[in-house]
Design a protein that fits this description.
heterodimer; A: mainly alpha; two-stranded antiparallel ribbon; 5 helices; B: alpha+beta; Immunoglobulin-like; 4-stranded antiparallel beta sheet; 3 helices; 11 strands; elongated
Chain lengths: 166, 201
């Protein structure tokens, strides 16, 4: 009987967390999958612009959803901050890889153009903006570290009741 | 401490959103400018001066976008069929503010000596065109058209045009000219061009 009661308690604790994790997982990456599945042609066109071909948008979305779900499930623990820092680092690396360091190059092969025309290359260099975004990401890591320190200091300051006290 | 962390968090979020918005807006505006005939080529003209075959390509840059064009560079590289560079010309413009227009003239100068030395008879020459612009002070954009084939009618090729004899060294000498430019070559030695006198028809 007590086991059933304990299970119910766990369910009461976990159910809202799982729901919250599912909601935030959807907000922080899951919704990207909807247009990708509704318009697969559009998704494949966007993927051709990405220098690191092979790892598609669904993979990136899945990574961010997984991080967000884990962060929400570990809410109230120190792991939340560790996961937040990891997510920021992963997003920084993905930013650099998928934008080729802020330089996107589209090369149209000659077979898509008239015979007398050669090849056409379009290049957009927004490395300055990428650098600004990376600085914001670093600030985000600093923020998470400060939050972790604050969390730990709160834990230390919590009143400890000696076990032998009634 | 908690308050300051919260402020830092909001600052990062707002700054990131503004940066993303600026990036999206400026790239959209840039593509509107490029695709919407914001940079339109004018009518080209050809002239010959000081032994150079000069092609003038005027461009009208109408900056209807939301940001300034900080720099505009046009580079053309003329190559022989084997890829050897015959001529390279670059034109740079100054700042073209948003809402204004500017005329940019690009001159492609081809040294006739170079063509004579390479013995280019009825051949196809290749041209690379690179148009680069710096937009909104931050974004660099460039379009490169490489290896565009241009038929060369060999109007000034040595075989077809001027049978040179040593007796004529240094003397004004006319040549078979297929272009609409009246020109006179000043020659010396075998097939070497000393200079060109020209006057457009």
């Amino acid at each position: 009987m007590s086991d059933v009661g304990e299970d119910r308690n766990w369910l009461r604790i976990l159910a809202p967390r799982i729901l919250k994790a599912a909601f935030w997982g959807f907000i922080m990456g899951g919704e990207i999958l909807i247009p990708l599945y509704l318009m697969p042609d559009f998704a494949s066109q966007i993927e051709t612009l990405m220098p690191a071909a092979g790892t598609g948008l669904p993979t990136i979305a899945a990574i961010f959803v997984a991080f967000e779900v884990a962060i929400q499930l570990f809410d109230g623990t120190i792991f939340r901050y560790a996961l937040s820092i990891s997510r920021t680092m992963v997003s920084m690396i993905l930013f650099i890889i998928f934008t080729n360091g802020g330089i996107i190059e589209v090369l149209m092969p000659p077979n898509g153009l008239p015979s007398e025309a050669g090849s056409l290359q379009i290049l957009v260099d927004f490395s300055t903006i990428l650098a600004a975004l990376l600085v914001f990401s670093l600030l985000s890591i600093v923020k998470n570290i400060l939050q972790a320190v604050d969390f730990l200091s709160q834990k230390v300051e919590e009143p400890v009741i000696p076990p032998e006290m009634p | 401490m908690r308050q300051s962390i919260r402020v830092l968090g909001w600052t990062i979020t707002i700054a990131s959103l503004l940066t993303f918005a600026f990036l999206g807006f400026s790239v959209y505006s840039l593509f509107q400018l490029v695709m919407g005939q914001g940079i339109a080529p004018g009518e080209s003209s050809v002239s010959i001066s000081n032994g150079d075959y000069v092609i003038s390509l005027p461009f009208l840059v109408n900056n209807t976008s939301y940001f300034d064009i900080t720099k505009l560079d046009i580079t053309t590289i003329i190559k022989d069929p084997e890829g050897g560079v015959i001529s390279q010309s670059t034109t740079s413009s100054g700042i073209i503010p948003s809402g204004s227009s500017a005329n940019v003239s690009h001159y492609i100068s081809i040294d006739i000596n170079n063509i004579v030395e390479k013995n280019l008879t009825d051949a196809t020459i290749l041209m690379d065109t690179i148009m680069g612009l710096r937009y909104a002070n931050i974004i660099e954009f460039s379009v490169t058209m490489a290896n565009v084939s241009i038929p060369w009618d060999a109007s000034i090729s040595p075989k077809q045009t001027f049978p040179v004899s040593r007796d004529r060294d240094g003397a004004p000498f006319s040549f078979g000219n297929k272009t609409n430019i009246r020109a006179q070559l000043l020659l010396y030695d075998q097939f070497r061009v000393f200079g060109v006198n020209s006057c457009p028809t």
